[in-house]
Design goal:
The protein is an alpha+beta fold. It has 9 helices and 11 strands.
């Protein structure tokens, strides 16, 4: 993909990028795929997935009280609890305003940890290990403290497009607008009216300005990080894109990221004529393209009951086939240690 080679012009020391299609194939990549990068707020995608898994497993409830009076787990995931950005100050009533809050994710980590396992371990056992994300770890705050590689995030991007750990209904719920119509500030881009957000996932919708491209569909979801990182999934395009850099987000990113994303989407639309055969696993650099895997010792043959989502029971979403099984509850796993 010619678009990926354009990152060589970015004013950064090191950059790693990749594009993953809906089948999980890495269409192309550029830069050091196995180099660890601090993710900053892209961490929230990983942490949100852990919370969603905890909901599925029954360790946490959507409407469980958490954070300020009247707020719930759902409010915290959607940045609608009223908590301030990085303090415990309450700035609005729950559900009244979209206030982007790192503190809210710290509270969510504590809620999950109360089920009997530290949140970093919950993420490692429930998300990273089953997806083969061996180089990824939550080394600090649940909002900003993860370290990962482009190769590992390709595995996560594949999961976001064809979930195996989560019931599809739960991921669909998380990538729809939660508490529609709330205004708020999108960090780095100012006030958005509305500032639509899902359950942990920022939604493209019709926001302007925005860190994704003008060609992205309104259904695009993902996150960017202050460390100069982003991950987006565009369900209409049937692809995801990851970019990790060694330069903090600033005006350079506002200038570079949208046209880069538009070029990626143009390449995808052009197909074989774009400089890369769609579906190829051969990278454009000397780095080996990551291969998705699920280690056999992490496949379980039992089914896991998941909560009702959107009014429909989803107990039948996990067949007894070991190749489709998801991990059991973390507390059950600990009990068997």
């Amino acid at each position: 993909m010619d678009s990926l080679r354009s990152v060589q012009q970015w004013p950064v020391g090191t950059v790693a990028v990749a594009v993953v299609d809906v089948s999980g194939a890495v269409l192309d990549c550029h830069g050091p795929q196995d180099r660890p990068f601090p993710l900053a707020s892209v961490t929230k995608l990983l942490s949100a997935y852990g919370v969603l898994l905890a909901v599925q497993e029954g360790a946490v409830d959507w409407d469980q009280p958490a954070g300020p009076d009247g707020a719930t787990v759902r409010h915290l995931l959607a940045h609608a609890s009223g908590l301030a950005f990085d303090t415990e100050r309450v700035s609005a009533a729950p559900g009244a305003k979209r206030i982007y809050s790192n503190t809210g994710f710290a509270v969510l980590a504590d809620v999950v940890a109360a089920s009997g396992i530290p949140f970093a371990d919950y993420l490692a056992e429930g998300v990273f290990q089953p997806l083969g994300m061996a180089a990824t770890a939550l080394a600090g705050c649940a909002a900003t403290g993860a370290v990962s590689t482009c190769a590992d995030l390709c595995r996560f991007a594949a999961e976001l497009q064809a979930p195996k750990l989560l019931a599809p209904q739960i991921l669909a719920e998380a990538t729809r607008v939660a508490y529609p119509g709330l205004d708020g500030v999108l960090p780095g881009y100012g006030m958005q009216r509305p500032n639509d957000w899902g359950l942990g996932f920022e939604l493209r919708d019709h926001k302007s300005p925005h860190w994704t491209g003008s060609r992205n569909s309104p259904e695009t979801f993902g996150h960017f990080g202050q460390s100069g990182t982003f991950l987006w999934v565009d369900p209409v395009a049937g692809a995801a894109c990851i970019a990790l850099t060694t330069r903090d987000f600033d005006q350079w990113a506002r200038d570079a990221w949208p046209p880069f994303t538009d070029a990626v989407l143009a390449d995808l639309a052009a197909g074989p004529g774009s400089g890369r055969t769609r579906g190829s696993l051969t990278p454009s650099s000397s780095s080996e393209a990551p291969k998705l895997r699920r280690p056999p010792d992490q496949l379980r043959s039992w089914t896991t009951s998941v909560p009702t989502v959107g009014g429909a029971a989803s107990d039948d979403l996990v067949p007894g086939d070991p190749s489709r099984a998801r991990p059991g509850r973390r507390e059950d796993r600990r009990a068997g240690d």
